């Protein structure tokens, strides 16, 4: 899938530019994007640090999910896609180097994306959960934790099913595992410079920990998007609502000289 990268975005491909100078990569039209931002991303300000959550924050009431996915049936890496067909919808990566989703299994009530490490990039995971026709008003949540593998990162996003970035890309959580996760709310419509390039982004960087169980929620509406952490709002944007059908996508990938680890997903919830 074609994708734009904001200034200073690191692409999860070997064609990425330097870590802080930014770059771009064009993926095949069949594949969603793979983009992560590094620590110190200049789009956030080079001296910016994560923002602590307010001590008196109140939880936001969430609607009852239409879909709740748990991983209670064990499945090996060779069988996960069959056992969880329709729950997890994998796709090939953008460079034709194989399939990211070969390292996923289910055990002990979790979806386990194994990060094997090594001296070459990938593999990891690439796919979406459940339906691919979510519209403005949809609420998506994922409960996960990371056993960090240095050199890996992840993006969970609402991505346009038609692979048109100007219809709205909403990322949360997204980052390399060496930093705390960020939320990135990308421009839509006329604010995109081209069909493949929507660099204008509102970003939120709460001081939270990948390595503990937490729930990350994207609440879309016809006027904008809210981002929640364990039910507490960490940022909101009252513009650039998603347009047309979207899918709730997860991408995990690594760089060269990475170290083994795991991304563990306990639950995914989707409300139309």
Topology diagram in text:
Blueprint: E1 10-11, E2 35-36, E3 67-70, H1 80-83, E4 88-90, E5 104-107, E6 110-115, E7 125-134, E8 139-147, E9 152-160, E10 170-176, E11 182-186, E12 201-204, E13 214-220, E14 225-229, E15 232-237, E16 246-254, E17 261-271
Antiparallel strand pairs: 1-2, 3-17, 4-7, 5-6, 6-17, 7-16, 8-13, 8-17, 9-10, 9-16, 10-11, 11-12, 13-14, 14-15
- The CATH architecture can be given as Sandwich
- The CATH topology annotation reads as Jelly Rolls
**What is the class in the CATH system?**
Mainly Beta
- H-E order: EEEHEEEEEEEEEEEEEE
Give the number of DSSP strands. 17
Largest sheet: 8 strands, antiparallel
Helix fraction? Answer: under 10%
Return Rg in Å.
17 Å
Number of helices: 1
Given helix and strand content, the structural type is mainly beta
Strand content: 35-45%
Keywords: Signal
Region (Disordered): 29-54
Protein name: Glycosyl hydrolases family 16
InterPro entries: ConA-like_dom_sf
